[in-house]
Amino acid sequence: PPPALPPSPPPSPPPPPRTEPFPPPLPPGSPPTPPPSPPPSPPPIFIGCLDPLALNYDSTADRHDFTALACAYEIPGCTDSSAVNYLDVATVDDGSCIASVPGCTLSSATNYDSTATVYNGACTFNVVGCTDNSTSNTSTVLNYNPFANVDDASCIVAVLGCSSRNGSFNYDSMATHYTAGACTFIIEGCTNSTAYNYNPSANLDDSSCVDEPTARRRLLDDPLGAFAKAGGSDESSTPVLAVHGRLLAGSGTGCTLPQALNYDSTAVSDSGNCIFAVSGCPLSDAENYNELATSDDGSCIFAGCTDVGALNYASNATLLDDTCTYALKGCADPAAANYNSWAEESDGSCIYAGCVDPAAANYESNATESDLSCAAAVSGCMDTSASNYLAPATVDDGTCRFAGCLDLAAANYDPSADFASGLCSYSPSPPADPPRSPPPGSSGGSGGSSGGSSSTPDSEVDVVQGQGDSEGDSNFLDAWAAWLSEGPVAWLYVVLGGIAGLCLLGWCGVVAMRWRRGQSLFGTARSDSKPTTQRSAQDGASTPHTRSTTDSVDHRPGAPASADAADAACGSPWRMVTDDVGTGMSHREGTQLPTPPRPMSAVERRPDGEQAAAR
Fold this sequence. Notes:
Layout (H helix, E strand, L loop, with lengths): L46 E2 L14 E2 L11 E2 L14 E2 L8 E2 L14 E2 L8 E2 L9 E3 L8 E2 L5 E5 L15 E2 L9 E2 L14 E2 L6 H10 L19 E3 L2 E4 L29 E2 L14 E2 L6 E2 L14 E2 L8 E2 L14 E2 L6 E2 L14 E2 L8 E2 L14 E2 L6 E2 L14 E2 L49 H15 L4 H16 L2 H10 L14 E5 L6 E5 L16 H8 L5 E2 L9 E2 L27
Parallel strand pairs: 1-2, 3-4, 5-6, 7-9, 10-11, 12-13, 16-17, 18-19, 20-21, 22-23, 24-25, 26-27
Antiparallel strand pairs: 8-10, 14-15, 28-29, 30-31
């Protein structure tokens, strides 16, 4: 078992509070002591334009002003407010002003003014259409436009005549349009006025006439003919027959002709109202109407406008006549420059004035002709974060200027900056390690003696903890991390896990202590042990002091002579150690030494060894 430790010495009482003597009273009549002056205020920081190319460059400014329009630059352009291309932000007139001259600026207009620079909306245009208004007995123009002043050869001239090739006697191959009464249409039927089925409307005999002998013979040849027999069925009886109201013999009460449409087989006498079948056009609005037609043979001819482009197109018309009317064509859009109020139909001739340049700020996609209203292109910086940003610019000319830190040593160094902003930032230097202090109660000398010189030796004190010295562990882990950064990540976890396990067993403290004291892991002196310095308690001089295994000695009576002896006695990695200067204080390995008072510097020491009044 480890040897028992003596009880810890009682803590030193705290030093009495420091008292300052009061200043002596002022003699009577002396002026009062003025109050202490306040600390000086930091110098003011001036903000201004730091761009040397700006008109308002301020060389005395400390930092650049990043607010909008803080820097003023020379902007070329037209400075004449009456000019067409006036630029309100221009500071220097570049001679590009264009005088304002109202007039017709559309080149397609009849009153185009090449000297005009401002469109006045008073342009006049040609009207294209049919300008022929000639009319005669044999021809006429159907689409004359009284507003047209330029003929476009679009006139529709109608040559009048009989243009019906089928169903007419007097077809005219030169005629293009039918006019009423020009054709004599064919109407077939019985043209014999003495026949029983005479057709007064027919102008072409179709051999359908019926006379009295023919009618009688037909009846006699017809075994189903109707005969009235007087007093019985004697075939010698006189038949009673009427054709077209003419009684052939006897008397009757119906149509007794079998070829008639209203033949009555039970009639014994003809009633005179027989109706015969007549083929033709039974429609009265047809040009070849047949008033006696009883059946439609599909020959009806209807005259009318068969042109689908006309206003009065008739879908049932079969013969084109001269009645077609056409719309007056022109520009029917009131928004167009050449609007025609009389136009009944748009012909695609509308002209829209405006800016036709897609790059212009006032570009109009529906404009078809330029009216010289395009806004002039303004070149400049279009980046809003630049110090020379130009709001009305429409073309970026690559002149943008940016402020930034131009100090190569600064953390925010900006190689793309055009001029210094005065706002550089620097990375802070790492803080220096605090000096090690001797343990409390040590006032100089060796062997823990007090008195004599008040200086404290500057030699290091081994602080050995159960988990190893923090500095040693840091160096150890840093080395491992640097080596493992080149290899797989899995190795890092394996190594760190092993180290953590050893530290938990207490070996990290043993290894760190022995390494720092110049010992190997097994207790022998290392060849690379470095001498330390130990100051004299009398004059503060430094004398070499070499770490060795004999330095860790317990100065208590009866303690082992060395650390190795203690290890052998205890049989444990726990042992008693002391500091290098022999303060007489002992502690168990793995415990933290108390923090010693701050050693006095050389300037705080007097030649006689007494401490200065102000520490």
